[in-house]
Amino acid sequence: MRKIVHIDMDAFYASVEQRDDPALRGRPVVVAWKGPRSVVCAASYEARAFGVRSAMPALRAARLCPQAVFVPPDFTRYKAVSAEVRAILERHTPLIEPLSLDEAYLDVSTNTSGLPTATAVAKAIRDEIRERLALTASAGVAPNKFVAKIASDFRKPDGLYVVPPERVLSFLTPLPVARLPGVGPVMAEKLAALAIHRVGELRAVPTPLLVHRFGPWGLRLAELARGIDEEPVRPTRVRQSISSEDTFTEDHYLDELGPAITRLAERVWALAQREARPARTVQLKLKTAEFQILTRSSSPVPMPGSARALAEAALALRDRVDLPPRTRYRLVGVGLTQFDDAASQQDALFAPPAVSGC
């Protein structure tokens, strides 16, 4: 039985800004460049109370919270703080799987700090982060990764939530199926069409029926509904791509996809700012109304240096699509791939493995 801890720094970028500038404490802080194409990188909890969220267009954030203080992101500083958090984690285990600059999984089945339980390890980490860095982190403790990640959200901010093995099923049962990893809006709608809204309802569906309906993914759904996740913590896991995609409620012609491509490029650009390595390739993904998938990619020199430039590169890839002009499309995606491992910064906190512009 594994003992997994998921550590998630609370409103990381915004919290660093508030820590370093006392004038920002207690005020709604939005980390973003303020402009028509900018997207929120992070929002303090004071700003979140007004509905401001990461990846939201900055203009919308300003409308929701006119009194917000906009602070341009300083990723060099965030990565330096991130390295300090990493050092704290390494006091307890070498088995650390990074997810981004501000969160990671730890396998503490056998910890190196001599603490008796995973709960004690999580508490010690949170205490050290508060005392040494004047920041807060939330933690989830569970027998596997996906339950630990869900648990870390339950007492945010600055919280600790523990799901022991005997409580995994009761913990998952009332949750919306959208809380399960891999269940996005489209899959949630498909499950809702079958009157499946909660994890407990999903668990009641026979596994063969889920497999018949959804193929191999149906088996994975059945396992998740039962709290089964054998995925180990992978300390050397390296992300190969960053992407974002939209599935439309109505199909569109190719020349109608410009706004969606621009919006997706902004999301991807924000996510890319958390990655220590530069990408070398821009990718555009399309799915037709007949479910034909096609991709176009390029490796421009130099690579795009802003969200706007990334959007322009993705729009240029759209011009290389040679299907009939009346073809309709149900999905579009924008991505960055082929990250340069040689440029990896080993001193970044959770040097990210594998999800706008800021």
Strand-helix topology:
Layout: E1 4-9, H1 12-20, E2 29-31, E3 42-43, H2 45-48, H3 58-64, E4 69-71, H4 75-90, E5 96-100, E6 103-107, H5 118-133, E7 137-142, H6 145-152, E8 160-162, H7 168-172, H8 185-193, H9 199-203, H10 207-214, H11 216-225, E9 241-253, H12 258-272, E10 279-288, E11 293-298, H13 307-318, E12 328-339
Parallel strand pairs: 2-4, 7-8
Antiparallel strand pairs: 1-6, 1-7, 2-3, 5-6, 9-12, 10-11, 10-12
Helix pairs in contact: 4-5, 10-11, 12-13
Order of helices and strands: EHEEHHEHEEHEHEHHHHHEHEEHE
Structural class: alpha+beta
> Reading side by side through the largest sheet, how are the strands ordered?
5-6-1-7-8
**How large a portion of the residues is in β-strands, by DSSP E?**
15-25%
Oligomer: single chain
Structure description:
The protein has 358 residues and is of the alpha+beta class. It has helices at residues 12-20, 45-48, 58-64, 75-90, 118-133, 145-152, 168-172, 185-193, 199-203, 207-214, 216-225, 258-272, 307-318, and strands spanning 4-9, 29-31, 42-43, 69-71, 96-100, 103-107, 137-142, 160-162, 241-253, 279-288, 293-298, 328-339. Among the domains are: 13-71, 3-Layer(aba) Sandwich (MutS, DNA mismatch repair protein, domain I); 173-225, Orthogonal Bundle (DNA polymerase, domain 1); 241-343, Dna Ligase, domain 1 (2-Layer Sandwich), CATH 3.30.1490.100. It is built from 13 helices and twelve strands. The strands form three sheets. A five-stranded mixed beta sheet has the order 5-6-1-7-8. Strands 9-12-10-11 form a four-stranded antiparallel beta sheet, with helices on one face. The protein has a three-stranded mixed beta sheet with strand order 3-2-4. 41% of the residues are buried.
